[in-house]
Amino acid sequence: MSNHLALRSGNPALQSSTFRDHLSSVSEGTMTLSGTVNKTAISLILVIASAGYSWSNPAMHALAMPAALIGFVLALVTVFKPKMGHVTVPAYAVAQGIFLGVISMIFNAQYPGIVVQAVFLTFGTLGALLLAYMSGLIKATENFKLGIVAATGGIAFLYLINMVMGFFGSQISVISSNDTMGIIFSGVVVVIAALNLVLDFDFIEEGAEMGAPKYMEWYGAFGLLVTLIWLYLEILRLLAKLSSRR
Amino acid sequence: MENPAIVLWIPIIILSVISIIKLLNKGGPNSKPWIRIEKVEENE
Known about the structure:
The structure holds 2 protein chains of 2 kinds.
Chain A: H1 17-20, H2 33-56, H3 64-80, H4 85-110, H5 114-135, H6 142-167, H7 173-176, H8 180-210, H9 216-244
Chain B: H1 4-25
C-alpha cells in the first residue's frame, strides 16, 4: 500500500501513510462514514459557537493571535498523535473559532455583509462538491490527486515565501492586491481549496472502507475542518478584493 | 458589480445542477429507468 496513491490528499494532515500506521491497532471498533460526519458536525458547531463568542466579545480580540498559534500547535499534535483526536480536534475547533471570529469581525467592519456571504459560499461549495463526488462527476483519480497535491504545495510555498518576505517589509503583491491578477490568483486558490474537499471525502471514504480504527473518525473530521477553514478564509479574501473595487 | 458574491454562486449552482442530473440518471444493473422505450409490434 505504500506505493498506492489512493489515500493521497492535498491536505497535509491527510497523507497516504496515515491509515497504514494505524490499521494494526484496531481494538475499539472501526471508522464509519456516519461517525465521521457526526464528528465533523460537532467540530463545526464548536467553530461557529466560539467564532460567534469572540466576534461579540471585545475582550476576546486580544486572544486572536494566541488562539491561532494554539490552533497550529493542536493541529501538529493531531497529525502526530491521531489517537488524541477526541481531545485535540474539539480544542482545535474552539481555538480556530476564536481566531476566525475576530478576523471575520475585522473584515465585516470594512465590508459589511461580507462574512455572511463567505459563510454561505463556503457551505454552498461544500454541498456542491459533495454532490459532485457522490454523483461521480468529480472522481479522485490518481492524476487528480497528484495535481491538487502539487497545486496546494505550490500555494503553501508561495505563502511561506510571502511570510518570510513580510519580515523584511516586503510581500508578493499578487496575494493581497485587488487588481485583475490578484483576483485571478485568489480565484484559483479558492478553486484549489475547494477541490481539496474532494480529496478529503475520498480519504474519509477509503478509511471507512479499509476499516480504520474508530479514533480516525476525529482525524477525518479534522482534515475536513482544516480544508473548510482554509476555503472560508480564501473566499473572504476574494470577496474583500472584489468589494474593494466597487 | 452590485454584489460580487453572485458571480461566485454561478459555478456552485452549475456544479450542483449537473451533479443532481447525473445522480438522477445514474442507473446500476438493478435500477429501473425513468423512461423506457419499447418497440411495439403490430397487433400486439
